[in-house]
Amino acid sequence: MATHVGTICGALKRFTRPHSSNWVSKKKGFCCKMSTESPSLTHTITLPNKPNEPVHIVAASGVSHSDFWSAVESSLFKQWLHNLQTENGVLADGTMTLRQVLVQGVDMFGKRIGFLKFKADIFYKETGKKIPGIVFARGPAVAVLILLESDGETYAVLTEQARVPVGRIILELPAGMLDDNKGDFVGTAVCEVEEEIGIKLNVEDMVDLTAFLDSKTGCRFFPSGGGCDEEISIFLYRGRVEKEIITQLQGKETGLREHGELIKVCVVPYKKLWRTTADCKVLVAIALLEMAMKEGLLPTLSA
């Protein structure tokens, strides 16, 4: 069928007027419009709770076939669709509908998607008004607040990294993205500390500070919910060490060089931590820790 139509249009092309790329012939009611534009990559889905509301997934110009399908089948995109339908999801009460998703960009980390950029068209059914729907998807992440007691002083262990998006060198908690769909938050946290700080922690010694949040929150926090889907779990590790360990950690250079990580370890007295950096993970960790201690929710630190 496609070949037949192409043959007809090819035959008609010789009748096209000079310098005219589009024309309409009224003879016998026949119309043909020539176009050099290639069809967009599209896919249609229906959400489990919205069988009568089809959602069109469309690739923006420049998005390749492989990137488009990687995006559609990615855990990042599937998790976002799932979130829409949860108890507190945007589509949960039926007042809004998702009509289209425009996939605008895909950044691959090896064989998996690292970052995904898309635009969602979500409307209020009653008024037809559209709500903001630009999404930068990077998925779940973890961060660890490491507190080390030495000679009666408590120290926090941070990393110093160049963060190109904000154009600054930032002091922040050891942190990282989940690399798979298994949801191993605490395991990822332990691995990130080993990679970025160079010390090995036991999974059993980790306390999930975000688990103290109300279950309706999902027990994670959203650093920039207006534009990014990232949700972070914050863990606490506490230990006692000799002052020599504090000295050894200060200024230590770490990170996975093959991944472009150039990290310097920085040790800060805990009492000064809240005003030392603007990293939101640090500030959230402090708030959660202080409230958890106030309400007696933390286990006793072993000797």
Automatic annotation (TrEMBL):
<keyword id="KW-0378">Hydrolase</keyword>
<dbReference type="GO" id="GO:0080042">
    <property type="term" value="F:ADP-glucose pyrophosphohydrolase activity"/>
</dbReference>
<protein>
    <recommendedName>
        <fullName>Nudix hydrolase domain-containing protein</fullName>
    </recommendedName>
</protein>
<dbReference type="Pfam" id="PF00293">
    <property type="entry name" value="NUDIX"/>
</dbReference>
<dbReference type="GO" id="GO:0006753">
    <property type="term" value="P:nucleoside phosphate metabolic process"/>
</dbReference>
<dbReference type="GO" id="GO:0019693">
    <property type="term" value="P:ribose phosphate metabolic process"/>
</dbReference>
<dbReference type="GO" id="GO:0080041">
    <property type="term" value="F:ADP-ribose pyrophosphohydrolase activity"/>
</dbReference>
<dbReference type="InterPro" id="IPR015797">
    <property type="entry name" value="NUDIX_hydrolase-like_dom_sf"/>
</dbReference>
<dbReference type="InterPro" id="IPR000086">
    <property type="entry name" value="NUDIX_hydrolase_dom"/>
</dbReference>
<feature type="domain" description="Nudix hydrolase">
    <location>
        <begin position="137"/>
        <end position="290"/>
    </location>
</feature>
